[in-house]
Amino acid sequence: MDVWAIVVSSIVALLVGWLGAWATLRSGNPKRKVGWWEQSNTPLFAESRYAGQSGPLTVQLGNTRLRQPRIIDLAIANLGNHDITAVMFHEGAPLRFSFGTPVLAILEYTSEPAANLSQVIDTYADNGALPTGPSVGGVELKPTLLRSGQTVIITVLVDGGREVTRCTDFPLVDVDEAMGLPALPARPFREVFRDTLLHAIAFRNRP
User: In three state form, how does the secondary structure of the chain look?
Assistant: First the structure.
């Protein structure tokens, strides 16, 4: 029994030491992740009711008549346990997203928790766009603070059929990119550490 007690004590000591070292390394190099997904992509009305420029139902934005107007909600979220600061945007480059069809206007943007985004959300034009024609471009999020758990929703008006939404520029340093709806959050490290330690101690104290 004494031999087993020594063996178990040694295993517990090694486990605690390894977990402590891992926790220190993780705290010094925290994992950061930004996720994005298309929350909705909805035509303004059913395509069967839209007959184009010569049809009975038309939509205009200023003097521009729209062919296939759509409303898209783009979600951008900090899925990690640590804040992402403006300096983590490499050389001040913005996050950019393209919808494969011209972006006519940013209708609104929201943040949860609330944040002032008026200076950091804008549209951009493709570099190769013809100066006389509409540029496809997209929307961009300029360097800003994204707090842990923060989600930003950008609502845009586009004109065209449904295309694939893409992140065309992801300049964040030491931050992973995640596409699609986020999975359920992982258990906090402190809970995993606590349960592992309690199980090891319980095993050690078994009669």
Answer: CHHHHHHHHHHHHHHHHHHHHHHHHHHHCCCCEEEEEEEEEEECCCHHHCCCCCCCCCEEECCEEECCEEEEEEEEEECCCCCECHHHEHHHCCEEEECCCCEEEEEEEEEECCCCCCCCEEEECCCCCCCCCCCCCEEEECCCCECCCCEEEEEEEEECCCCCCEEEECCECCCEEEECCCCCCCCCHHHHHHHHHHHHHHHHCCC
